[in-house]
Structure formats: C-alpha cells, structure tokens
Amino acid sequence: MGTDSLSQPKAAADDQRRRDPAPDLAMALDAIYAYATDPENWEEMTRLLAHLDADDDGEMRALVEGVRQHMARAEMLAQRLHEAPGEPAPVYCHMVVGRDRRILDISTAAAAMLAPCCGRLEPGTRLSFTDPENAARFRALAAAIEQGRAGDGPALLRLVSDTGEEAVFGYLVAEAQLPEVLRRRLGLAAAARPNALVFVAPDRAAAADAARMYRETFGLTPAEARLAARLKEGRSLKEAAADLNIAVNTARNQIKGVFEKLGVNRQSDLIRHLTELSQLAAVIQTEPPPRLDPALPASHPGTVPRRFVTLGDGRRLCYREYGQRSGAAVLMLRSALASSLVRPGEMEAAAQRGLRLVVVERPGCGLSTPDPQMTHESFARDLEAFADALGLERMVLAANSSGTLLGLAAAARLGPRVRRIVLTTARFEPPRPSKGRPGMVNYFFSNLRRHPWLLDSTLFILRAKMSRPFMRSLVFHFFEKSPADFALLERMPDLVESLIDQTMEAVGETVQGLVHESQLMLQAERPDFSGIAAPVVLWHGEADGVIPLEEMQAQLARTGLPVAELRTFPGMGHLFLEHVRGPFYDALAG
C-alpha cells in the first residue's frame, strides 16, 4: 500500500498530483466505494484526498460537491428503504449458479441485462462470458466468496459489454447468506442450494413510472422529473424537449436543476448505478448483526442482560452491571468502538473485589439512543441523570481511550460524587499527521478531518459490510502500528473474538455515536475541567502504537489537567490491561 501523501510536505503532495491524473466524479466514487468495501484500499482514497487538498480550482470544488451529495443521497435512500415500509419496494433481478457454474435459476430481467456480456443464459446451461476479462472478474469474486475471503457480505461485480460501452453492476453473494426477506422478494426456493452463488442487481426496467420515482425520491419538480425520465430512456435533450413540447433552452434550464439536485455531472449513469447498488447492499444486509452465542456459559459476560435508563427527553442509555449490586460503584466508559460487554476476566475481577461495575453505552453506541446534538456538556448532563436513576451517590469513574474527554466532562459535572478518576490509554486530542505510512486511527482522523462530509457515509458503508471475518481483519489493521498489541492478538485468539463481539455490538445498530464522537473530537473546543474534585490516575502502556506514550503526554500537557499518578508499563501496548487486570481492579476498589 502507498504512503499517505497528506502527511508529506506540500511539495511532495504537489508532485504526487502531477504524476496522477486529476480524478473525475466516477474515479472519486470508485475510490470511496473501494475503501468502504475494504479498508485495505487506502491508496485509492489517499490519492483522491490528496487531489482534493492540493487543488483549489472550481472544477475540483464541483467534484467535491458532487461526491458529497451522492454519498448523502446514497445513505438516505438506503435508510429510507427500511424506514418507510409504506413505499413501493425496489425490484431486483437475479441469477443463481451452482458450483459447476451451471445456471440454476435466472429471471427474465437478469437475462436481458446480462445478454450483452454472456453466452446462452438458460437454466441448465453453463455460464459463459464473451469477454475474458469479465470471466476473470467473475471467477475471482466467486473464488473469494467460496473460500471465505469475501466475508459474509456481498461482493460488487462489474461487467462490460464487448463494445465497452455498457456496464452491468450487481452483487455476487452466497445464496446461503441472502436474507429471507430478499429470498422471498426474488422468488427463490425456500432452502438455499449448497455452494450456490446469486447475482442480484436492480431491475431498471421495472420502474414503469420513472417520473414518479424521480420526483418522490430526489425531490424533482414534476417538469424536471418528466425530463429526467425521458433522458433515462436514452433520448437526447433536443428529442426530450420536442416530446415534452418545450423549448430546448427550457430543457437546458431544467436539466441544470436536475443536476444540482442529484449532485452529478455527465457521469449520471454511474451515479444512478451506485445509488441503486447502495439500496441493494442495505437489503442484502437487512438482517441484524450476529448475536452472541445463546449457549454461552452462565459465567460469560454475554449472559448479563442489557438494561436501560430513560432520560428526560425520552432517549435511553443502555448499560450492563457486573459484580455485586451492593458493592462500591465503578462507572466505566469504554472506547467508542466498544459496547458494554467486558472480558470474562473483568467480570470475575469485579466480583472478587465486591465491586458494582456499571458499563454504559454512550449515545449512538450499542443500544443507546443517538444524540445528534451531543456535546461534552450534554453528555455530562446525561450521565448525571443516569447516575441519579441508578442511585450512584459515590463512585469511581473509569474512562478508556476515546471515552477520556467525555468521562472528564462528566466527572466535572458530578463533582464530589466522583471519588477517583482512572484513565487508561487516554486520548485527549485526535492524532496529528505523521510522516510515513500512518496507522488506521491516524489515517482516519488526518484525512477525514479535512473532509467531514465523508465520515458518516464511509462508516455507513463499512457497517453494511460488517461480518466476523471482516471485523477480524479490521481488528488486526487497527493494531498494525502497535507491534506489542499485534503480537498479543496473535497469541490470544479469544481476545480477538472478544474485541469483535464488543465492536459488533457497539456499531451493530447504528454508527451515529462513532460519527458524533469523532466530530466532537475534531473540534478545537475542549471541555472545562475546573469542576473536577477527584484525583486523576492515568495508566498507559509504553509500547502503545495506537496512542504513543509521548503523544499522550504532549496532549495531557496541553490540557493543563493535574494528574495525581501517572503509571506506565514497559513493553506493553494499547491492550496493556490484559497483563495487569488484577492491579487495575485493585486500583478501582481502593
């Protein structure tokens, strides 16, 4: 993978831009979808963002606006697909092939769509392609799915006709992975066939009333919708104007309005394909994320039920309690990527020390209701109401990683009710750009701080790909710049599975909490710590490559926060608590 050009000096970034051709809207969208499908594709995203940062002309600004509007629209449509059950459902076409590549089932619309790229398309015949490149694309995707290298989600398949003019976009997915709701919609057999693959794509011919669809979906005026429908049918602007009995200049003005509302330029066909595919991806992923194994032993944290506190405005905060309900209270805030699920050893440690360990899921994390207007102060008020509801009069407040600032803001609000604050792997600021190839966290903040409009849409698409194999890959990517942690994960597969469980619970319902907290972290304004009355204890691994010790210490110095005890652990990384769990819980109990 390439070096992040955004972390290079300006001259190097300009040199990169001279070497690479400027992206058009199609290239930009390809880069975004490639990254969202697999974060390994950092290079494409890096080059795109380097161009956006280095170019101030009107053409690049138009490109940024086009991408931004497309991403917002794609996310909105995918959400509306599930949130508005009264609207007509999109129609899809499909083809099912067996392991021997014989066609088991194919819809009429799919046969018409694939005809320019394939040989004979009938049940019982072997699937063949007229272009070797299309055949190679299909073989590669099919092999990745069959060998488990594509995760549980769909894989995007793009086919090009012999003339090179017509592209077909659709998803290839194992039939066994199709949600039941989509199986019924496609009219597939009740039982999935072993080793069968399904190609599924939007059926564009099914939009009988295209004008109504454009009007309702994109907010076009009736006149703009009628014109858009004619253009979709392949007519020129002049032909469409004649058909609608309007002047060509009137049609030109109307199409300008259409382009503005759709956020597109001449690549409108690609935009339409990708928007439809965003909807389809959401349908394929419509089933909730995998839950924890119901056969877990009683001693496993996953058996502890999630509870809720309803706040004054009707929002709910979700939490779990471990240990002894009558014990000394510890209120714990995890990373934004962790739910209220703890490791089995933590549950045991809390019980042994007689602690009442309360782990809360912040707004938009796990099952807690999102708060789009969340600030440090509003969260502090939420946590105060939460503590009141649970009767927590005195407590230790523990915060980890990205939960640090929110925990300190809450401690300032709670004042003397907090008797000690324990921070681990604390992050007080977003990471700053660094030379060389950055780790995942640095990459995320250094690039997306410049383009915040990409944040929610990229995370939305990433969530659509969520599966255990995909999340396992992300866990190792997250720690790739922290050798001590990477080695620990390789030695402890149960730790990897725990991290996957926590993350899938945290973002399984929504990514809004991660979005809002990331945006809050990027703001220059910091919470007021003046109300903090309790001593602050801070523990950190000296070999932490995610939040390096030196970086944390520099951030801490800028906050002016007094720390009663700073304890570091040689040779240990971001996950150092795995090594010192006993002393840590002793500190919470002390």
Protein architecture, described:
This protein has 23 helices and 13 strands. By secondary structure, it is α/β, with parallel strands linked by helices. The chain has an eight-stranded mixed β-sheet with strand order 6-7-9-8-10-11-12-13, with helices on both faces. A five-stranded antiparallel β-sheet has the order 2-1-5-4-3. Strand 12 (536-541), helix 22 (549-559) and strand 13 form a beta-alpha-beta unit. Helix 1 (10-19) crosses helix 3 and helix 9 packs across helix 11. The radius of gyration is 26 Å and the shape is elongated. The protein starts with 9 loop residues before the first helix and ends with a helix.
Q: What structural class do you assign from the helix and strand content?
A: alpha/beta
Q: How far apart, in Å, are the first and last alpha carbons?
A: 47 Å
Beta-strand percentage range:
5-15%
Detail the poorly predicted runs.
1-14, 16-21, 77-88, 206-214, 263-278, 285-290
**What's the tally of helices?**
23
Helix content: 40-55%
Overall 3D shape:
elongated
Q: Tell me the Rg in angstroms.
A: 26 Å
List the strand order in the largest sheet: 6-7-9-8-10-11-12-13
| Count of distinct strands | 13
Give a short account of the largest sheet: 8 strands, mixed
Q: Roughly what is the average pLDDT, rounded to an integer?
A: 76
